[in-house]
């Protein structure tokens, strides 16, 4: 058995697989079960009672995590003209138009969030195959296509801890909510913000129990089952 396997086994012993934990307990346990030398990301995995094959059961949205994700967010803005100065003044890491598009077509993807002004979307759309696979394509529904006057707010939101969530083909939502090094209270605040956004984004075609199951885990750590009702009650009470 590998050394990593042994550490994972030891971490797994901390978790009662037959128990569904309240959010506070689960997050505290996830931190204790993080065993690697690097600062692991804490992730929330939600199995939804939705069928991604139906248009009225799609789930996609944005959550603003009040305590961020514990890393510097590299922001790229596709724009031109006077909006270039606005984006640069707001601290965007990369700002431009055709030159950036060519760079990305050549395989460069050293950024975390892509934002575009509407006048650039005709050009940016040809990057759909590249950026779409990485979840980086600017999209009006997620707020990353913005007129120049709104760039300060959009860039500011991205810098703070803006995360997108989307239902995958297996009806699961996977979202990072912080780092194992975060204080418990900060992880709870981020958890709450994410749950609120998921509940708010409930699609019209959803029926019955909206969230079937929920799991908290760090990057390499074991999964910790959440008490879904407790999680929803915690979110609603904040």
Please give a handful of descriptors for the protein shown.
20% strand, 4-stranded antiparallel β-sheet, Ribulose 1,5 Bisphosphate Carboxylase/Oxygenase, 2 domains, Rossmann fold, single chain, 238 residues, globular, 9 strands, 35% helix, 3-stranded parallel β-sheet, alpha/beta
State the CATH class of the largest domain: Alpha Beta
Could you give the count of β-strands? 9
Task: Specify the overall morphology.
Answer: globular
The domain count comes to 2
Oligomer classification: single chain
Question: Which radius of gyration do the C-alpha atoms yield?
Answer: 19 Å
Average pLDDT: 91
How would you characterize the largest beta sheet? 4 strands, antiparallel
Q: Report the span from N to C terminus.
A: 44 Å
Q: Which second-level CATH architecture of the largest domain applies?
A: 2-Layer Sandwich
CATH superfamily of the largest domain: Ribosomal protein L1/L10, rRNA-binding domain
Which range best describes the helical content: under 10%, 10-25%, 25-40%, 40-55%, 55-70% or over 70%? 25-40%
Structural class given helices, strands, pairing? alpha/beta
Q: Stretches where pLDDT falls below 50 for ≥5 residues?
A: none
The main sheet orders its strands as 7-1-8-9
Q: Secondary-structure element sequence?
A: HHEEEHEHEHHHEEHEEH
Strand content: 15-25%
CATH topology of the largest domain: Ribulose 1,5 Bisphosphate Carboxylase/Oxygenase
Number of helices: 9
């Amino acid at each position: 058995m590998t050394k990593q396997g042994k550490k994972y086994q030891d971490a797994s012993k901390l978790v009662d697989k037959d128990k569904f934990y309240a959010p506070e307990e689960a997050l505290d346990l996830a931190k204790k079960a993080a065993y690697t030398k690097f600062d692991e990301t804490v992730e929330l995995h939600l199995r939804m009672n939705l069928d991604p094959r139906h248009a009225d059961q799609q789930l996609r949205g944005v959550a603003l995590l009040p305590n961020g994700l514990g890393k510097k967010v590299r922001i790229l803005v596709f724009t031109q003209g006077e909006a270039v100065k606005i984006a640069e003044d707001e601290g965007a890491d990369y700002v431009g138009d055709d030159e950036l598009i060519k760079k990305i077509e050549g395989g460069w993807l050293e950024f975390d969030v892509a934002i575009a002004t509407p006048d650039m979307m005709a050009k940016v759309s040809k990057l759909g195959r590249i950026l779409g696979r990485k979840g980086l394509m600017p999209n009006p529904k997620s707020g990353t296509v913005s007129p120049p006057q709104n760039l300060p707010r959009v860039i500011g939101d991205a810098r703070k801890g803006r995360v997108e969530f989307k239902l995958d083909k297996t009806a699961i939502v996977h979202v990072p909510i912080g780092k194992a090094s975060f204080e418990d209270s900060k992880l709870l605040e981020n958890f709450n913000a994410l749950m609120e956004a998921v509940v708010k984004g409930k699609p019209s075609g959803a029926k019955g129990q909206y969230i079937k199951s929920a799991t908290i885990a760090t990057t390499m750590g074991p999964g910790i089952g959440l008490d879904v009702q407790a999680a929803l009650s915690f979110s609603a009470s904040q």
